[in-house]
Amino acid sequence: MENWKESKEKEDKKMNVKIIKLKNQEEVLCELVEEKDDVYVIKNPCVLLPTQQQSIAMAPWLPFAKIKELNVPKEQVLFILEVIDEIEKQYDQQFSAVFAPKSKIITPSGPLGLAK
Predict the structure, then answer these.
(1) 101 vs 34: CA distance, rounded Å
(2) What would the pLDDT profile of 17-35 be if each residue is shown by its tens digit?
(3) So what CATH class is 4-111?
(4) Rounded to the nearest 5 degrees, what angle is found at the Cα of 55, between the Cα atoms of 50 and 56?
């Protein structure tokens, strides 16, 4: 069985998306950035919530906190798991660095192609 560092090395450009099960029974979906001696460094932590449309939604784990990365003490972690492909794709879409243009798109029939 390979550890998360080996799987990260295989996927250089790809986010290292994991589910961390904590001792308090919380499950956190996140990008596992680094493993240190006594902590896991995570980024973009969120929780998965079932919806009425029988799909999954993502919500921030700490919605009112200003964090870029967070250190999770190893003593608080029960285990770390790989996520299924569909959840990983959704997470990547949510958190990948895509920059929107600052200006409007101008077309011959007006802004965004809308007729005047």
Answers:
(1) 31
(2) 999 999 999 999 999 999 9
(3) mainly beta
(4) 50
